[in-house]
Amino acid sequence: MEKTNHITVNEIPSKTWSWLKMNRAAVDVPSALEPVLPKVRGICEGVSFSEKPSFKEMPDAAYTGGCGSSFDALFDGVQPVLITAASASGVSSGAENAPVVLDYRLSGGKRAAAAQDVFARENSSVTVIIVSSSDKGDGGFQALRTKLYAARNAHIHIVKVQLLGAGFVQADETAGFCEENASIEVTHIILGGAQTYLGAGANLSGYKSAFRSDAAYLCADGQVLDMNYVVLQYGKKSDCQMFVNGTLRGNGRKTYRGTIDFKNGCSGSTGNEQEETLLLSPQAVNNSIPVILCDEEDVSGEHGATIGRLGDDVLFYMQSRGIPKESAENIIARAKVQALLGKITDDVTVSAVSDFMNGLFGED
């Protein structure tokens, strides 16, 4: 029998509704994880990649993610690869550059740990796409950790695509830090695996620093998706925008925790988190915990959630045009993911996501 460690992940910063047992999650981790390296493509002028960077190349900082301190121990002895965007003259526009793609193709039974650091120097901009995939029926475990440092006027866009086999468990954290006028954008597409534990966030330390996250998912047929987004806003006029949009069907189970924390001194800051969940089955379970914490008077924070079934008006419209109910539900569920594909500037990745969805919806 394989030895595992039972660890706590995705603990919400401010404990609430303890009787509902949603403040944290727990995951069984294989005791022996193997460090793995990605296949890399797309390195272009102004961006460098190193499998074995020197210890001090990535700045020390109070990185903020969502998985928690227990998660860090999984990466003891794991050397992060490093992607660095060189400093540029002027101010970064945040425009999408040709992306760097890290491809983690895992075999069945793999127990993998992988880490990557992304450092955007002053005035630079970089896009990194990380794809985790395997054959359709494979199982295993993947621990994935990504640290992002956006220096003054820099922009980082990180895209994570999860297309793992039906038996895989993934625990994945994205932790960021922003200097003055820097921004981090995180895009998640989660379609595969048996269980996915996702933590993400940033420390908005600098003046006018910004964080944006967009997540799309399909959770079905016994799948578990557990999410924890945490953003700490220290800098004046900092901004946080979080958006989650997905579908639950069968007996899928999803928990979303989103925390925007306005710290003392972040006057003029804004924050917004919005969630839309489409329920296609009475057996599906949805938990949503949007939280705004505030220790500063001059801020503006909003949150909202829309959770429900497909409206009768939408169904009537589609059925009146010869589209049966099941096909209509699939079209809407697919559209939630398709809406994020426009943020992915790599045709190979877009095709992989489309092919995976074809399999999910029986369109092979």
Automatic annotation (TrEMBL):
Record-linked InterPro entries: Fe-S_cluster_assembly_SufBD (IPR055346), SUF_FeS_clus_asmbl_SufBD_core (IPR000825), SUF_FeS_clus_asmbl_SufBD_sf (IPR037284)
Any one Pfam family match given in the protein's UniProt record, by short name: SUFBD_core
SUPFAM superfamilies: Stabilizer of iron transporter SufD (SSF101960)
Top-rank taxon: Bacteria
GO biological process: iron-sulfur cluster assembly
Domain SUF system FeS cluster assembly SufBD core: 118-335
Transmembrane parts of this sequence: none
Family according to the record: Belongs to the iron-sulfur cluster assembly SufBD family.
Protein name as it appears in the record: Uncharacterized protein family (UPF0051)
